[in-house]
Structures are given as structure tokens and as C-alpha cells.
Amino acid sequence: MFSNIARHFREAFYGITRHFAMAFSSASAVSITLILIGAVMLISANITNITRNIEQNVEIFVKLDNEAEQVNIDYLANEIKNMEGVLAVTYSSKDEELEKFIVSYGQEYAIYRGANNPMHNAFYVKVEKGDTLEDIAQQIKSLQYVDTVKYGGGNTVKMIVTMNAINIGAYVAAAVFSLLAIFLINNTIKITIYGRNREISIMRHVGATNNFIRTPFMIEGIFIGVLGSALPIAIIVFGYNYLYQVMGGHIMTDLLSLAPVMPAVRDISLYLLAIGCAVGLIGSFISVSRYLRFRR
Fold it and tell me: What is the pLDDT of residue 185?
């Protein structure tokens, strides 16, 4: 068994060296598509990171009616906590709200401390997903003793929904590019197989099974996938690290933070290597299987 495995790997290596031009052509096709897939994955990783930052920083501000007593406030807190999609509810008394206002706008407003405090008790509500902000805000607004509800407006929700849609589009694009890579490597390996028609015929005449003939080609496909993924991985690792350093880790503001270099480049590199091996294996398997099926 081990001798057969070693032979298959040896034949695959010889196949690549004897037909290096075709192997290089296949690897180049894989590289081009993997570069596109890597770019799409980087965009997706950064969109995910930015969306997560927005969701973590955007809160629903709930200003309570001054008529609400402590028992009403406690009841409201439980009601909001039990709403689907609510992550946390933080209570802020009117005195705490005034102190925040003084810190933001100046000590001259300190005269309102005590009985003259015009602020309201409030809740700060965090949600699990940003696209649920509007729905949860409307539910809170309908509760008794709620004076005002603010959550950043519909533009925040639209931005999060748009980013999620772009993210889905990125995954679809990655899948399309993967299929393109399989198509390209399938065609190039098909040409290689036809060029080795005599070799395959001899193997058949001496009694080799289809699986025995197919295996070295499949290993070749994996090798080609690994070779094809080397350049895209290098571009992703060094290119994204350079871009991250140049941009200071964010786009204009900390809220639009780029995905950290690690683990982003590590994960994407592993994905690209896996995709390269997979498309090489699948592409070669399809080509050889079709040839063996039609050439009895």
C-alpha cells in the first residue's frame, strides 16, 4: 500500500516536471482566481469588522418620563432586557446624566446640580445585531413611562444593512471565482491528459484500474493548487500588512477600523491554500474521469 502511495506521488512529481509548461499554465490560472478570491475575502473581513464596531458602539438611548418611580424603572428595565435581540440594558440616573452633560459641555452647567437638575433618568440599550435597532427602538417607544427613544436614526440601520448585503455579495463572488478556478484548471489539465494519451493507454493495456490511473493526476492537481496559492498568499500577507500600516489601522475614524492583520491574513491564507488544493483536486478529477469514461 505504502509503495503504491509513494509511486503515485513520484508519478505526479514526474508528470509536473515533464509537462512543466502546462503545470505552470494551470498554476497561473489558479493564482489569478485566488488573488481575486483573496481580495474579496479581505473586503469581507473588513466589512465584518467595521459592522461589528458599529454594532458595538451604537446604542439605543431611552429617556424616561419624570413621573416614573423606582418600581416603574425596575419594571421597564426587565421588560427591555427580555426583548428579543437586546444584549444589555444600562441604567443612568438623572444625576449621572447631568455629570455626563457637564463633562461634554462645560463646568458652567454645574449650577444645575441638586434640585435644579433638568435631566431625565435614562437607559442605554445594546443590541445583538445593528439591523434590529429600529424594531427594538419602536418596541421600547411603545412602553409606558418612556419619554424619548434615540438610536442614531435610520441611516445607521441602512448602513449596517448595506454592509451586510455587501458581505453576502463578497461570499457569492468568492464562490463564483472558485468555480472559475475549477473550470480553468479542468481545461488545462484536460489538455495535459490528451498530451499523455499514449502513457495512459499503456497503463490500461497492462491492467491498471481507473483509480490507479486517476490518482497521480489528482495528486498533480493538488500540487498545482499549492503552487498556484503561493503568490496570492504572499500578496495577501505582505500587501495587507503594508496597507494596514499605511492607513494606521482604520479608515478616517476609529469606528471604521480595519480588521487586524492577525488573524485576518493567517485565516485567509489557510482558506486560499485549502481552496487551491480543492480546485486542483476537483479540476483534475473531473478531467481524468471524463477522459477515462469516453476512452475505453
Answer: 67
Residue 213: the pLDDT is 73
**Sign of the C-alpha dihedral, residues 151, 156, 162, 165?**
negative
Beta-strand ranges (E) seen in the chain are 60-64, 86-92, 122-127, 146-150, 250-251, 253-257
Q: Rounded mean pLDDT of 176-187?
A: 73
Grid coordinates given for 216 = 497521480
pLDDT of residue 258: 80
Instruction: Classify strands 60-64 and 146-150 as parallel, antiparallel or unpaired.
Output: antiparallel
pTM of the model: 0.67
DSSP 90: E
CA of 10: how far to CAs of 17, 39, 148, 167, in Å? 11, 35, 74, 42
CB-based burial of residue 65 (10 Å sphere; 0-12 exposed, 13-18 middle, 19+ buried)?
Answer: middle
C-alpha cell at 268: 485567509
- Tell whether the model's pLDDT for residue 147 goes beyond 70: yes
Q: Which residues contact 266 (CB under 8 A, 6 or more apart)?
A: none
Lowest mean pLDDT among 30-44, 50-64, 198-212: 198-212
CATH architecture of 59-151: 2-Layer Sandwich (3.30)
User: Do 226 and 276 touch, CB atoms closer than 8 A?
Assistant: yes
Structure confidence at residue 3 (pLDDT): 58
Domain assignments of the chain as residue spans, ordered by start = 2-54+158-294, 59-151
Crossing angle, helix 210-234 and helix 261-294, to 10 degrees?
150
Helix 2-18 vs helix 210-234: crossing angle, to nearest 10:
60
